[in-house]
Amino acid sequence: MTAKLDPSVRDLLLPDARNWLDRPPLSPFIDGAFRAARSEHRLPVVDPGSGVTMTEYVTASSEDVADAVRAARAAFDDGRWSELDPEAREARLRYLAGLLDRDSEAVAQLESLDTGKPLAEARLDIAEAVAVLRYYAGWATKIEGAVIPAPRRLLATGTREALGVCAAITPWNYPLPILMYKLAPALAFGNTFVAKPSEQAPLSTVYFAQLCAEAGIPDGVVNVLPGGGATGATLTSAPGIDKIAFTGSTRTGQAVMRAAADTLTKVTLELGGKSPQLVFADADWDAAIKGVMDGIWTNAGQICVAGSRLIIDRGIHDEFVTELVRRTRQLTIGHGLAPGTHMGPLVSAAQRGRVNRMVAHAVAEGAEAHDGPTPPEGNGFFTAPAVLTNVAPGTQIERDEVFGPVLTVVPFDTEDDAVRLANNSCYGLAAGVWSTANATVHRVARRLRAGIVWANSYGIFHPSLPFGGVKSSGFGRELGFAGVEHYTELKTTVIDLGPGPAN
To answer: Is the terminal CB of the chain with fewer CB neighbours within 10 Å at N or C?
Structure first.
């Protein structure tokens, strides 16, 4: 079908991005090629900035899922990828990263259209995806074994070997970077892969599949299944999967765990968050305000590590919030591809409705809303960023993940109060600490129950830095050496050397 984008938006696209939207409906990529899905069910791909359908995709059926898993299993079992020399895998992955880098602007435009985020943010996403792929390409040649201390006359060695077939279910908010967190280490160590992108943002993942074919990744090594929740549920319970990596909501993560329990499949989960930013009176105000804004307004707050709870020293509360609101009102809300946009729309009308209902409920419970700039008119899924003060700890807006541009503000009187408020959540994904006193930063960071703590900064990611949560935010780590551990398993080999020399 022809994309229905407004001409003013369509004219901003590179030819590769326009052509991708104008192609036939997206279909599963299985065993090295796009193929007609066995399902008749189609879903729209909607531009959140205008509310129009850009293209469609055919959802992968249970038969498509089975075919993809069989293709991945055959590719692993016959060694076409796992038994390549590590140098060859590294070279192929670096070439793939180069192709993604080559097409980065077109892919960023697709990512912006798919998710609604500003193009500047989408460009950073694709650059991160390239960096993660290159990082793990380098790891392919650097896994080492070890001699294990053993009783006399025994020689024991440990080697890391690929798991087999790895499956990933990825979210819509950062489709390609989060896919790379899972796919890059899996492929570097010889595994094969089946990916199920979010039904709300499949464009960049399916585009990446064609790059895999162009890069000469062997057939069956990478498979992509566009589809909704039913496709994901079928994949997580499919026989022949050795590892499932999931990023998404806590509720869906629990369902993934239940499905994996039946087959004892390895699982890593990166789930929801309600991350606090603690601002002490001695913080660098300019840096802290910028960090708080970046932490909650980036991608319109639709990010698992959104710093959605500002916990601030009571002595600076009023003045800090006044300046924060003033700067927030200077943001430009608009279509992701429009020049000068600071904040785009929410991903869907349903998500916008949920966010607005939660804010209205918070106001009804006594919170005071300080709205940001007025959203543009039209059919896009826009909403105004909101700073909420007079928020009572334990209320819904302070307790539950909003996944939108909503910041709650709660004052504290002592350091113990700040830590108690920060840890008073079922989540534990991320946190931020703002203070010019190094002792305060280190002391508070140790006490926070979070998988990652940023000090005098927020939201810094790098391929070498492990990332993941605790409590209801999931378990397991991605990036860094954690990727080596989660996509390989340790095999111990014990050799009996026979009797030693006579004494």
So the answer is: C
